[in-house]
Amino acid sequence: MSDGSEPRDATAAADPRAARVSDDSEPRDSAVAAEANIPGIDRARDDLGLRPSTTTNGPPAGASATDTDRTSGVAIGSAEPETRRSRRSRSASLTPNPTHEDDTMTASTEAADLFRRATGREPAGVWSAPGRVNLIGEHTDYNDGFVLPFAISQRTAAAAALRDDRVIRVTSTFSDEAVEASIDELESLFPTPEGTTPAVAEWAAYPLGVAWALRQAVAADGAPSEAFERGLDIVFASDVPVGAGLSSSAALEGAAAGALNDLWSTGLDAKQLARIGRRAENEAVGAPTGVMDQMASMLGADDNALFIDCRTLDANLVPLGAAEAGLEVLVIDTLVKHAHSTGGYRDRRDACERGAAALGAEALRDVAVDDLARAAELLDDVTFRRVRHIVTENQRVLDTVRTLREHGARAIGELLLSSHASMRDDFEISVPELDTAVEAAMAAGAVGARMTGGGFGGAAIALVDAAAIARVTTAVERAFAEAGFTAPRIFTVAPAAGAHRDA
Ligand code: ADP
Ligand code: MG
Fold it and tell me: What is the percent of the chain where pLDDT is above 70?
């Protein structure tokens, strides 16, 4: 295996320059990381009573592959197929269903159906992975920090079967065009040189990029099976809204990774597949995103959020308890499209790297709230505000985990709101539509609200009393109409299972 799961060389990790050139998704040896840290934030994390940062791969020692310990472990790649009934009941309040012919169809049955029509044979299996909502912790992932997303019930499914030749043929309900590449071609297609577009249709760069990254990871050990030398037909269907900040891209990568990993018998675990997905997104598609989306999609669980330490990739389930508290999470999709591969996102990443370098920190994770006064003296105003967002946001994630545990979901409203203010004023990634969504939701009685996802468009979330959903929805729609904005798409989401094989 050479997927970057090995702990790093201590000397390299201790040198901030060396660490920055390499892929920041790779977990570091925890002792090295602890030494390099300003201890504040890591002590705060440890105080939460979460598992120490030693395991970077696979289930915690003593846990089975389907362990769902709510306090210390994480469900790793639960193989339990979700029943159609449970999916339907969880997505009952979902309005958008962009591709399904009727609403008794799930992405999974639709993918299998299309597979039969497109290939004239039965799929060997169907795999699916969910979109995600980030409850709190924005742009902290690529700063080695903390995030708290949850997987949602909207999923992308991949129906697939091996072929007798070496061709990988991908088809999606989102595109008329099937895209083919031979296994032998993948290395000439990827990585996509920085600043250029992928050599295949962009959507196909996600699944073909996953195939490429998976083969790269496994190749070092030699082909694991005869199947590894065969191509596949893969057909995707999805009910994850695209470009809404719900990470349809991670859902697509997760579904592709599940199918490839099983059919090629490559045997990678959920965290390794999350890294493969991220590599596809970064290097094949060219979108410089962190690893949060893929981790949430691979490892999420019903009723839980997933607290992720993006430095170590330790992941712990945290019961959200929204239903218990009589609350629902409302998504307000502004329909303003964001584009990760361009402009703002890259610019914010650069500012974070600049800030960390100027402060002599390996990453902004290593800068504590108490260091901000010194940062204000050293940094220009814009860089300082970018840094302040990341540093305070990391703290807010830890505070949210603690608050959820100690006081329940109803108590996190203020944290969501200050997160939004920080993104609006310091990180400057909000847009008027997102601010309007948050303000209107709060004015109509939401417990808390914030924009979610990378910013520059996409969605906001609001934590709302179940009984007030209609009132808040109407208030937001009215505010959008008054401001002359396109009517938003508003629906509820519930924390749901991560990636698994469906059939
Ligand atoms: P999001 O916030 O939804 O992840 P991204 O821009 O990161 O937005 O990813 C969206 C892109 O992912 C789409 O433009 C498309 O290329 C690809 N994509 C997502 N879902 C599918 C799908 N089911 N079929 C084909 N392509 C998809
Ligand atoms: Mg995405």
Answer: 79
